[in-house]
Specification:
Elements lengths: L1 H15 L5 H6 L8 H30 L6 H25 L2 H19 L11
Helix pairs in contact: 3-4
């Protein structure tokens, strides 16, 4: 039960930082008709971002939450670091895509933002 609670808490914190479902993000590239080289570059970009995010979120959240009192400054620093990491990701992605692909990506992202704005966080469910 404790593991389930900690997993739920970590998932909630990742959601709060604007984490995306990896499969949803990969699906966002289907309409872009990426070349093989672009696919490899985007995959490498995702892998790096995922590794950086998992490490930073895990360590930063623990530092903010594990003490006797909640460390607000540590938590806010984690959020700033996450924003910096996302900016690096999108800056690199911008350089990979053509102008036409960037325009399509923005259209697709706008649709996802509208769709997701209507969603409410699901109740935490136990995985089997």
């Amino acid at each position: 039960m404790r593991k389930l609670f900690l997993a739920a808490l970590l998932s909630a914190s990742l959601f709060a930082f604007g984490g995306h479902d990896r499969h949803d993000m990969h699906g966002a590239f289907k309409s872009l008709n990426l070349t093989q080289t672009q696919k490899e570059q985007v995959k490498a970009l995702f892998d790096k971002a995922r590794n950086d995010s998992e490490k930073g979120n895990k360590e930063g959240f623990a530092a903010a939450f594990a003490g006797e009192t909640f460390n607000r400054q540590s938590f806010l620093s984690l959020n700033a670091a996450h924003a910096e990491s996302r900016a690096d990701f999108y800056e690199s992605l911008h350089a990979i895509l053509t102008p036409e692909q960037r325009a399509q990506f923005v259209k697709d992202a706008s649709r996802r933002f509208e769709r997701d704005a209507d969603k409410k966080p699901n109740d935490i469910k136990e995985k089997k």
